[in-house]
Structures are given as structure tokens and as C-alpha cells.
Amino acid sequence: MLSHIGHASGAAEAMTQVTAFSILALTVSLALRRPRIFSLQIGHAPAAVLGAALCLVTGIVPPHLAWRTVEFLAVPLATIVSLMVITLVAERAGVFQYMAHRIARAAAGSAPRLFTLIFCAGAATGSVFTNDAAVLIFTPVVFGLIEQTKERDWTLSNKLPFYFAVLYVSNVVGLFVISNPINIIVSRYFHVSFLEYARWMVLPALVSIVTSYVGLRLAFRRDLPRTYKQPEPLVVGSRQRRNMLLCAAVLVPTLVAFFSEEWTDVPTWIVAAVAAGVLLALHATVFRGRTGDVVAGVGWDVLIFVVGIFIVAEGIRHVGLTVYLADLLEAISGDSVLGLTTATGLTAGAVSAVMNNHPTAGAMALTIADMPLEGLTERAVVLSALIGGDLGPKMLPTGSLAALMWFRILRDKGVHVSYWRYVRIGVPVTLAAIVLSVLTLNAELWLYGWLFP
Predict the structure, then answer these.
(1) Contact between 231 and 101 (Cβ < 8 Å)
(2) How far is CA 99 from CA 199, 222, 236, 307, in A?
(3) Could you tell me where the beta strands, DSSP code E, fall in 310-378?
(4) What are the pLDDT digits (tens) for 139-148?
(5) SS3 state of residue 36
(6) What are phi and psi of 110, to 5 degrees?
(7) 20 to 30 A from 50, CA-CA: which of 19, 106, 182, 220?
(8) Is the distance from CB of 276 to CB of 178 less than 8 angstroms?
């Protein structure tokens, strides 16, 4: 009799786990495929809401657990909204258009140099303004720049290197916590401050940037043209110049305040919110813009998607599937920190490429939290997971919202990028970047342990 009860209990547990994983698979597939049902198109936000609702209805996630997830996400999402507002106001002040024109003038007619400067400028932009916002704004800016400066004999293949440069700098290891929404969320979960994150991740980030740059140069060595038409000098009016200077006057102290968190005890989200409020007020008064346009431009659908997908990820943890993932990582690692960090980075990267880095970040964070780790070892594993989550999306088009937005923006402008070409470039470059970045992180840990035994 007891054996029958045990079998029934095991079968029920297995069925619950299958249900949880099925809900995750359904949510991610709907978010990526965006099917149309009658006149309604199911995008990533409705898909995540549906997934969260199914978790609640089936009892996989109890209501109190869902509410706790929403409470936890409130601060990271406030940070992301603030950063989006900052980005949108800077874009309306003409900062990005001016930057693109200055790049085109500085490259002095050399297309390889133009590619390099776009890549570097994109990396800097993505580090400060978050990757999703950078892609959303910088992609059309670079598209317009290339259309303005292209030679008559240029084909689509000659333009693609510049478009890929914008995407790839949005999916490198974030220099700062604010460089990627998943960094903000996971860092808050494990109480990693802005300065602590930067202390460990600047070098791995630079390694990922260099690796991605070299990989793209090799991939497009036959397509990158030699010259381009230099644009005419840009006449900047006194009003636009004033607006850009005011933006800079807010952004510079904001970055300083981010780095000063450990001394001032003013958290990142408050600094970002104050900066967003100041810029929004300047936009409404001095810039004479419409506040509603900025608010409408915030990616509210992305925020809804994040909340919904983290509730689904919590469901996976609640039914014990993250325990299996933790056991897998420990089995692959071979009981070494280097093995564990490498396995974590590659696993996070591969899963991010297949089912998007947002649900992966949630699942990996919950998995690491359930592992018996502490101190620097836990930090190393958390940061390795972020390395994989930041870089992994470059392997497949489904990897990140930034990549999906990049495809959509280019498609709306008549540019159709081959998925096969995307994958053929993305897989080797990404794997190399993940391994080299994780090795760099481990080298830092070894050096730290040697200096401070």
C-alpha cells in the first residue's frame, strides 16, 4: 500500500515538473514567434502574462510567492525604467545623432576605421544606457548614417558589418551593472553593489569586447569596404548644443554617484531615478518636449515580460527543477571553482541562446541560490552566469530582446538578415568570448587569493 502511495506521489511530482517546464516552453515560444490570433498578436508581454497566470492557476506558484517575486523586482524595474527615460531624453536632445556624425567625420573616409569607431561608441553607449535601449536607438541611427555615407557600389553585404557592430556591442559582458537588465536583477538578488560588480567585471567585459570585435572583423573581412563618403559638416544650433550640454551635466555626476554607492550609501536605483526625474523636467521645460512621448517610449512591454517570466522561473524552482540544474553544474565542474564557473558560463550562454536570457537569468539565479556556495566562490559563479547570460544571446536570434528588436528594426527598413549567417558568426565568436571572459574572471580570483590569502 505504501509503495503505491509512493509511486502516486512520485508520479504527481513528475507531472507537476512537466507542467512547469511546459509552461516555460509555451511562454518562451509565444514570446519569440509572436503568433497572431484573429486580430490580436501575442507578443512577449502577453506571453509572459499568460505564463504567469498558468503558474498561478495550476498552483505551481502560490499567490504569496508570486507577490514576493513582484516585490523583489520593483527596485530593479524602477532602475531599468529610469535608465530608459535617461536614454530617451538624451536621444531627443540629439546626443546619438551628433555622436554618429562625429564618428563619420573622425573616420576620415576609411570604412574599417568607421566600423571600429561605431563598435567602440556602441560599447560605450551600451555600458551606460543599457543594451536594449542602445540597440533600440543606435540601430536606426547607424542605419541612417550608413545610408548617408555608402558608396554607389555597396551591396547589403557591405552594410552588414556596421549593423552587426551595433548588435554585438549590446551583447558583450556588461562593464557595469546598468549595462544589461539581467545584471541589475541578478546583482540585486545576490546583493552585488555597483562598484563591486565593476571591480570584478571590467576586465572580463573588455576581453569580451575585444574578442567580439576581432571575431566580427574576421567574419566580415571580405565584406567590409575600404572607403565611404564623408558626410558634410554638421551645423549644430545653439539650442541643440545647450540641450546636449545639459544632458552631459546630468549624466556625468550620475555616473560618479553610481561608483560612489559604497561610500554614500545611496543605492543605484535612487541615483538613476533622480537623474531621470531631472532630465524629464528639463525635457518638459527647457527642451520644450512632450513628457508623454518619453513615457510612452519606455519599453513597458519589456518590463511586463520580465515580471511574468520571473514568476514562471520561480515556478520551475518551486517544483525542484533548479535542483537538477545545480546537480548538473556540480557534476560537470569536477569539484573545482574553474570547472564550476566555466560550466556555469557555458550553460547560461547556451540556455540563453535557446530560450532567451531573461528566463535564463531567473533560473540560473535561483539555481545558484540553492547551491551550497558562499563567499568568493558564490560571487564567481554568479558573475560567470551573468557572463553567459550577457554573451549567449549572440548565438541564436532568439537569445535576447535586444536581438529581436534589432531584427525587427532592420526588417522594417527593408533589411533582411539571414538567420543562418547570424548563427554561423554568432556561435564561434560567442563561445570564444564566454571562455576567455570566464578565464579572465578566474585569473582575477586567483590573483586576489594570492594577494590576500
Answers:
(1) yes
(2) 28, 27, 12, 34
(3) none
(4) 888 898 899 8
(5) strand
(6) -90, 115
(7) 182
(8) no
